[in-house]
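Intended use. Records such as the Isopentenyl-diphosphate Delta-isomerase entry shown here are meant for training and evaluating sequence-to-structure methods. They are not intended to support clinical decisions.
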Amino acid sequence: MPDRKILVELVDADGTAIGAAEKLAAHRPPGALHRAFSVFLFSPEGRMLLQRRADGKYHWPGVWSNSCCGHPFPAEPPFLAAVRRTVDELGAAPELLAGAGTVTYDLADPRSGLVEKEHNHLFVGTLRAPLRPDPEEVGASRWVTPGELAAQRASDPFSAWFGTVLEAAGPGIRSLLPGAGW
């Protein structure tokens, strides 16, 4: 990948675009509110795909998180960015992907000193294709049931945003998978 600065879209408290900033600069304290997305993918049997972020990531390395997350480029629709990054990170496209709302948060990474000050667009969907994860993005992946997720959250480190985005996406997940226990 060529050495280039990646831009993120800055937003106001209502999620309206107000400009752009270099990605790393937007994550330096105190942080700049910017657009992001989080994807929750499920197998046909209703298992959730988790990924462990690669150890080489500049912030939140080596922790478990949702199936995929990232940032749209300025003026890129969040849905298209979510599909693009899912393919980039996991090497597979979702079979189905639907919006599940938004959530805003401001969280600090104590290890790197960076912050996540994000207006996050949430997506839920299904995935049948085999995974071909990019090792620079994904350290490991795992399909879990609700009970397995609860046990893993009690024993392994997760991204600081995981609980927030999971709770906010809950209605969309339950709509996608009624009766699956999510």
